[in-house]
Amino acid sequence: MKLKIKNLTKSFGDNVILDNVNLELNNVHSLVIIGPSGGGKSTLLRIIAGLEKPDSGEIWVNEKKLNFDEEYLINYRKNVGMVFQSYNLFPHLTAIKNITLPLEKVHKLSEEEAIKRAKFYLEKFQLNEHMDKKPIQLSGGQQQRVAIARALSINPDFLLLDEPTSALDPDLTKEVLDTILELKEEKRDMMLVTHEMGFAKQASDYIIFVANGGILEEGHSTQVFSNPKTDELNKFLERILEWR
Known about the structure:
The protein is α/β, with parallel strands linked by helices. It is 40% helix and 24% strand. The chain is built from 9 helices and 10 strands. It has a 6-stranded mixed sheet, with helices on both faces. A 4-stranded antiparallel sheet has the order 2-1-4-5, with helices on one face. A hairpin with a 2-residue loop joins strand 1 and strand 2. The longest helix is centred in the C-terminal third of the chain and has 16 residues. The two termini are 33 Å apart. The model has no long low-confidence stretch (mean pLDDT 92).
């Protein structure tokens, strides 16, 4: 995956969330974004997903420039697999229907092909026996794995995950993290926002630390975690350790 961000700025009212952000990465499969709450990491991910529009700046993903015209974004989003904190499953549909509905309605697959693809990913994530259950009948970890299966079923150009374990109890977090690590081993292209620092080390090819509206540090996980260069990252890691 290639990613280039140039002079990206985003505000909400008078609150500047991203301030002239720049980044250029080549041949990175797994990009992990860390940082304090309100620092801009989820906003950055949502802009890359085409769910938010920047005030100014440019983004290229795999050498294709994002056009923030709504008509372009509608088609762009069809090729982006997005996994949210709160699962975003349709509560009235079964697990398999949550996957097949967008495949049929948005991606225009036949019912037969949609079911075949949904069953493949449900089996991949050990969810076969739960395919006919509605979200309320599933644990949080199972719901999030259904959400990941749905995101992958569209054969996305890349996968974006926004704090995928933040809504889970600790005992359910591991099964979702294991699923994501499996995707990393398969060299799936993905960008991940997480507050799990141990997992960030394992899951990343490259890490960026987003705080105060900018990318304050970047590099490989060993470099970022073992030798932080800014006071902001030092303090952030110390707070994480204290909280743990």
